[in-house]
Amino acid sequence: MTDLLIKSADLIGKGRTDVLVRDGRIAEVGSISAKGADTVDADGLVLLPGLVDLHTHLREPGREDAETVLTGTRAAAKGGYTAVCAMANSYPVADTAGVVEQVAALGRAAGYADVQPIGAVSVGLEGKRLAEIGAMAHSAAEVRMFSDDGHCVADPVLMRRALEYVKTFGGLIAQHAEEPRLTEGAQMNEGAVSAELGLPGWPSVAEEAIIARDVLLAEYTGARIHFCHVSTARSVDIIREAKARGAKVTAEVCPHHLLLTDEAARSYDPVYKVNPPLRREADVAVLRAALAEGVIDAVATDHAPHALQDKQCEWAAARPGMLGLETALSISVLALGGPAGVDWDLLAERTSRAPARIAGLEAHGRDPRPGVEANFTLVDPAATWTVVPEDLASLSRNTPYAGMELPVTVQATFLRGRATVLNGKIEEETTE
Ligand code: DOR
Ligand code: ZN
């Protein structure tokens, strides 16, 4: 492969710097003139370590009408991601070594982002028997994170056993915190808006009660727990206290919970239906502050593509979930102070370094230094773009940001030194 020279990129903490890439790794960082290298003019562009998503629904196997590993990772690359963790709620469920190996292989074949499968905690996500956690951990996919996402691991005995099991090999459980008895029939956040609209509510305590319980179980077992899509102010309090005691707790927040509120449900447009639901303005403010402070470690998309018929229907019949990969960077910038005020180092921490550490993806979330894999993205901090659903790389169209003008564009993404996105466009040739 020819050397690649990134010219005059804005490096975090360094200012305008050149970066030389050779054989998929960073070879040199500084003021470089390299004859014969392919050169990318990055003047005015910020270089970030490639974004890492802890929470992506790729839908393959089983719902290839909504997304495939190929289309989902193309969307990821376009959003500046170099690695995504694929949730286990596929059909069949990723609860065996065979399925997680299949998903990882599809990711390698696609070549747009590293795909790290997440294994199910329970067989069929049914919450009854532990899945083949050990077999998935020791498979070629080397699964470290396990989640029944979409469902809560509601049985405390099952959760205890799962925590004890993953502790033996340094793994972790990612919990979708939703006490199922408290959310039966729920359609949106429980509060003034749900009362007005007459829709059954999803009370914040259903999330908080499980987070409180699981913090205690994690402390009792000494295992690691991660909380998916934290959405309420009280959840933040509980996590802050747990961290202060030294519990091995990490947490993520989704872009939509950092921007949108339950007021959106007044439209009755199911594009705003998501689980956990959009909350109140006061929750949004607390989540933003917690992300800035680090009580919440990472932004994770919960990219949840759905086929048209599952979204363009009445609210109660619609599936929960929204697209996230192609808009997450822009929304994160908005949530962390806007394009003029954003601290790029903090942004890199929450969208790349921290999620890479949580998932154990050592080749990702690394700032450019000689020797590290060349997984990075170039963003234009001054540009804006308008979200046009038809233009998205995802196979699905369920974005809540259609027509919105958002800050910051991804100009290029590099995976092991190879462009997956260049000049804002997906590269069609990705074979290494
Ligand atoms: O909104 C959601 N969609 N929340 C989940 O927990 C699952 C996800 C999905 O799979 O569509
Ligand atoms: Zn979930």
Summarize, please:
This protein has 432 residues and is α/β, with parallel strands linked by helices. It contains twelve helices and 19 strands.
Compute the CA-based radius of gyration. Answer: 21 Å
> Which architecture of the largest domain would the CATH scheme give at its second level?
Alpha-Beta Barrel
CATH superfamily of the largest domain: Metal-dependent hydrolases
Predict the CATH topology of the largest domain. TIM Barrel
User: Major beta sheet, specifics?
Assistant: 9 strands, mixed
Q: Which of globular, elongated, flat, extended, rod-shaped describes the shape?
A: globular
Class based on secondary structure composition and strand pairing = alpha/beta
**CA-to-CA gap between the ends?**
9 Å
> Mean of the pLDDT scores?
98
Number of domains: 2
CATH class of the largest domain, anyone?
Answer: Alpha Beta
Number of helices: 12
Percentage of residues in helical conformation: 25-40%
Number of strands: 19
Low-confidence segments:
none
Q: What ligand species are in this complex? A: (4S)-2,6-dioxohexahydropyrimidine-4-carboxylic acid, zinc ion
Strand-residue fraction?
Answer: 15-25%
EC number: 3.5.2.3
Active site: 302
Function: Catalyzes the reversible cyclization of carbamoyl aspartate to dihydroorotate.
Domain Dihydroorotase catalytic: 45-233
